[in-house]
Amino acid sequence: MVQGLSGLASASSLFLVASGLTVIFGVTRIVNFAHGSLYMMGAYLSWTLVTALPRGHLGFWGGVLVAALIVGVIGVLIEVLLLRRIYKAPELFQLLGTFGVVLIVQDVALMIWGPQDLLGPRAPGLRGAVEILGVRFPLYELFLIAVGPVVLGLLWLLFHRTRWGTTVRAATADREMVGALGVNQRMLFTTVFFLGSVLAGLGGALQLPRESVNLQMDLAIIAEAFVVVVIGGLGSLPGAFLAALLLGQLQAFGILIFPKITLVLAFLVMAVVLVVRPHGLLGRPPASAHAAHVVEPPYPPATPLARNLGFAALALAVLVPPFMGEFALIVFTEIAIMVLFAASLHFIMGPGGMASFGHAAYFGLGAYGAALLAKHFAAPMELGLFAAPLMAGFAGVVFGWFCVRLSGVYAAMLTLAFAQIAWSTAFQWVEITGGDNGILGVWPSAWAQPKLVYYYMALVLCVGVTLLLRRAIFAPFGYALRAGRDSPLRAEAIGMDGFRIRWVAFILAAIAAGIAGGLFAYAKGSVFPTYMAIPRSVDALLMVLLGGVQTVSGPIVGALAYTWIHEQLMRSFDLWRLFLGSVIVALVLFFPQGLVGAAQRLTERRK
Amino acid sequence: MLEVEGLHAHYGRAHILQGVTLAARQGEVVALLGRNGAGKSTTMKSIMGLVRPSQGQVRFEGRDLAGREPFEIARAGIGYVPEERRIFTELTVMENLDVGRRPPRPGQEAWTEERVFALFPSLGAMRARPGGRMSGGEQQMLTIGRTLMGNPRLILLDEPSEGLAPVIIERMADAILALKRDGLTVLLSEQNLHFARLVSDRACVLEKGMIRWEGTLEALMADEAVKQQYLVA
């Protein structure tokens, strides 16, 4: 009973955040990764205001409301400066661009409020508790339970009883037509973003009396909000409400029954819902989500220049290391691994045209596959390196079977969900995986202990597998994959099994990522859940996008550039998130075709 | 009132409009005729800004609107009724009309829901019905009514008779003639020559992205060669 009530209270705050996210998506078709950051800002700002203002009702409630409004203004700034320029970009760029904002906000919050958890005052007038069926239950929780339905009701009135709301609903269905009727979409989008941001800010501010304010709030809530929005159906408010209730209860009771897998449970429900109802419980297939399907031009064979550059790079990678120090060798090994990791993601994104926001799952599962064997069976490295692709490939078989059925935002969300399942398993199943402490002592066999030997082994494996993937792109299988990407109906009409082809591609990519993960585990000597966390998936995406999705050599260039930049940043800046976030935002805004794509356009123009 | 000059438009690499030039005077009903794929809809969309013209001018009441955004063009006084109707299916009749509402020019008699219902009486009987649960003819009336709520002075009608029963087509023709009597200028694209003849003053015949023939409907009906070359499928 009490569990159920506290589940309802969590559902309310979750609904506030998710409702903003879903309203924003409905109209702008943007999945705003930074929505969790707005929530976090709401919590921090209300902490500042409430502690600064005089105590009492006005100080507290005024502080909460003002904080929500300030968050609304911040949201408007984000919309005007960034999102407005990328409404027509592919979904992955939008996810990535808003993730850049997440990083920036994290460091800004760190600068302003410091790293320690902040505790807010309790709400005046709601400090006590009431007795329900013999158990004391905090009044504030009851208040929160009421907030959800009240906000849902107010939003319903706003959307059904005002002309602005009617216009928003019309734009959710067909925004181009709304524009042709004289509605300024820019103003509409900005006001919608304001509303969504205020809701996120309010959700965060209302958490103040409940839990401490900290820098991890943003990613924690955004993952749950994504799940709620996707289960409910992107763009559907009642759906979000329903899903928030479902998830709140699931977590409240999950703690009683399966304390170890509460996180997994949420994502599992989402995966099941998406497979049964691909557009969520109350969602509809998007009416005219994006402009006409773009057919990518065929990949040109490598030019002599590119070929020579490739050989030169490889020659450097082979000849220089014997003269390098240990640290440089470690960096080189890591770069070789990242090249393979990026190439494996590129394989499904570029030729496959599928969006993956959770590729780290396969990298991490490869690493864990090796490490678990080493820890529990004292297996040697050779066996571990064999187990890595096996484990990742197996996950690719299972997860891929679900993921390749969906496309666009839904596919990105589902891949993210599976990665979160893998991550939370590693994080919560402490007996087996060591939880947050990871698994230590994953060392290579004696012969491969010297850093130079290990480097050469990694180089051979990574370059070899990368070349195999490249070979597959130019083989009949690759042609079929690209045919399915560019015109799925025509490809099916000439007898190609699009589902099977994409599934195989997904599995191959998972296997390749698993090899990279296994090599990474032995290179580091340890594995941690962070290998599978969202930032690692974003790393892979950045490498691919930095190089250019629709180029074959892009992921290689991207991995080289990204790993190097990342290394430099981490070493020389405390605020590397701020810097990396800015780089991501700049990349999304100015180099949507990546470095190699931009270089190709330059050389084409010169011709 | 409307002068389109040398309008070019592309879809990707396909060169759809190759220099369309046409004009409509105040209070005139001009029919844009031509086969499927001749460029009728693209001409309409380019005037409206939904397809960005790659070259050429769209002058409306003396202002050049080419390259402007659709909402600016709508606010300048051009209404657009798309071929696919694009009713907001979740919204009721009243709500659909509400989305189209724009303030009138000073001195212009404003369109209201009641005035739309006077023009299309059957809509008045289903004010609370969602757009998705209406017949094709009713949707066509609603989409015209929705555009009229914006108080346009020129209205672009893309194939208003398409897929409608003959009785409804007659009623649609009456409505267009009523709008003409009110002083509205109409540019309509049509495949149905019979319908075009009922309402239009003049015809422009489009083929492969260019205007090939221009004249009165009577002259067109008499000219078997032009009909054969550009209109008969």
TrEMBL record, chain B:
Write the record's keywords in alphabetical order, separated by commas.
Answer: Amino-acid transport, ATP-binding, Nucleotide-binding, Transport
CDD domains in the record: ABC_TM1139_LivF_branched (cd03224)
- Zinc-finger recorded as keyword: no
Q: Domain ABC transporter spans what residues? A: 2-233
Identify a single GO molecular function assigned to this protein.
ATP hydrolysis activity
Q: Name one GO biological process term.
A: L-amino acid transport
Q: Does the keyword Ribosomal protein apply?
A: no
Instruction: Report the InterPro entries cross-referenced here.
Output: AAA+_ATPase, ABC_transporter-like_ATP-bd, ABC_transporter-like_CS, BCAA_Transport_ATP-bd_LivF, P-loop_NTPase
Instruction: Write out the similarity annotation.
Output: Belongs to the ABC transporter superfamily.
Protein name in UniProt = Branched-chain amino acid transport system ATP-binding protein
